[in-house]
Amino acid sequence: MYCVHKIYYILALVLFVLWGCEWRLKPNDKDCQTGTVVVERYDRIQGLYLTTGDFSALQQLNMEYPMQTRALIEDVLKIGRVNDPEINSKFLKFYQDTVLQSLINEVEQQYANMDDINKGLTSAFGKLKEEVPEITVPKIYSQIGALDQSIVVGENIIGISLDKYLGKDYPLYLKYYPESQREQMVRSMIVPDC
């Protein structure tokens, strides 16, 4: 009987520790406690919906990222209003273009890891906070903006269109952008642009 209670005690302790670690490692909690800036990966959920039509991904876009979704649909893409009954199918259809599908795949590959960008943003906003202590560090998220905008700025949010930072020699860029502009369309420009 003693061994059974001891096992339950150990399991409860392990679960408590694991739950505590999960609680402390959530991006919002970590940001508040350490000042770390972590880019929210809206682009991953966006890409999932736009490549598979996954309804749960669409729900996540609308429920967890309503401001970002509105800005993308209404202000960046300009394909309609988010309250339009047909907007979800318009949104999906818009990205079915083969060029946009290849952009989604390239973003997924090049930006599988964004630790360097998170570190750069943390440093930059840390310095800004030292100079202007009362400033609120905005939430920063990544998206795939169909080559329209590089950085989208809203009230306390900054959106990074990763499709505009695929490298100066990215084949699609070579067709449509002059060299002077392509020089700025590189990963290392994300933090300075923000």
How would you describe this structure to a colleague?
This protein is mostly helical. Helices cover 60% and strands 7% of the residues. It contains eleven helices and three strands. The protein has a three-stranded mixed beta sheet. The N and C termini lie far apart (61 Å). Mean pLDDT is 85; it is low at 2-33.
Question: What labels describe this entry?
Answer:
194 residues, mainly alpha, three-stranded mixed β-sheet, 11 helices, 3 strands, 60% helix, 7% strand
Helix and strand arrangement:
Elements: H1 2-25, H2 27-34, H3 42-52, H4 55-64, H5 66-76, H6 87-94, H7 98-110, H8 115-131, E1 139-143, E2 151-154, E3 157-161, H9 171-176, H10 179-182, H11 190-193
Parallel strand pairs: 1-3
Antiparallel strand pairs: 2-3
Helix pairs in contact: 3-4, 3-7
Q: Tell me the β content.
A: 5-15%
User: What is the H-and-E element order?
Assistant: HHHHHHHHEEEHHH
Give the terminus-to-terminus CA distance. Answer: 61 Å
User: How would you sum up the major sheet?
Assistant: 3 strands, mixed
- As a percent range, the share of helical residues equals 55-70%
**Shape assignment:** globular
Return the structural class. Answer: mainly alpha
Briefly summarize what is shown:
The chain is mainly α and 194 residues long.
